[in-house]
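Holo model, 3,4-dihydroxyphenylalanine. Inputs:
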Amino acid sequence: MDKIESLKQELKRINVEASGIRDLPAEKRAEFGRKINAKRQEVLARIAEIEKALLDVDAEPIDVTAWSGVNEPMLEFYPAEMGSAHPLMTELDRVTEIYQTMGFDVVESRQLDDEYHMFDTLNFAKEHPARDGYDTFRTEEGLIPPAHTSTMQHRVLKQFKSRLDEGREIAVVVPGRVFRNEDVDATHEHTFYQCEGVYVSRNCNMGQMLGILRDFFEKYYEQKLNIRTQPGYFPFTEPSLEFMIEKPKSLGGKKGDFLEMLGCGMIHPNVLKMAGIDPEVYHGFAWGGGIDRLVMLKYGLDDVRHFESGNLNFLREF
Ligand code: DAH
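Output:
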């Protein structure tokens, strides 16, 4: 297995080398691209070869539950060592780890939720058109696969409320899988990941929120970043902002290239009130943003559909 690991490392090195194409004059790029591609193909072929050999030797299928009837080919079993974490899971771990070092607790979201948590507790007025803005799926029973991790805000506020009575603050992040009923293309998936942040204390303010967010992005991309905000609208925050970072040069950005990374704002008093927290005494801020997009920028990926595709050539690059 070490051999595969070292080949994967080599693939990573080749990818880093490939990003150097940006610094080459136009006439040298085609040749450079061809060479890099040939190298990449060669390494991928060597990985495939080793994996095939592993299969031949290791694959002794002893699964008592597997169907092995007459005229039915046995399933092909892959040795567990051939598997690896999905890149989104690895990055999601990195994301929560950064927040944990800042003192945040982590609560996982769920994959089936209800109208109450998706809208009511988030200050969406009944019948308000903003409810349609989230392209929610619904089950026949009227349940909702959550369209954002904000569905967890109410639960988190109630679960951690006692901290406030102890003179502490609520500081929680919520990673989770979310679903939207929209057309799929290179930048839109029906299934993706978000991470939500919720912070409540007696005297927190927007400046602290922006500091936390800048800190997070700088740690994640391992460099200093310029940030920018613009006004946004979410029923559960007031005021609401869209938070942007300037695309770093090392990741192919030019000066003034700002990318929207997440939505955020000061938690609306009604949201605090519904969770039994007095908005006259406590204030909070919250944010939520896509993980897929974060990872795509980090690795220069151009198509979000890779993540859910199950394409082994793509997954092997990580
Ligand atoms: N849930 C929003 C979305 O998916 C993003 C968001 C905006 C989350 C503002 C928040 C927030 O917590 O305060 O579009």
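The first strand starts at residue 105 and ends at 106. The pocket of 3,4-dihydroxyphenylalanine is lined by residues 148, 150, 196, 234, 236-237, 240, 263-265, 286-288 (CB under 6 Å).
Archived with the compound record.
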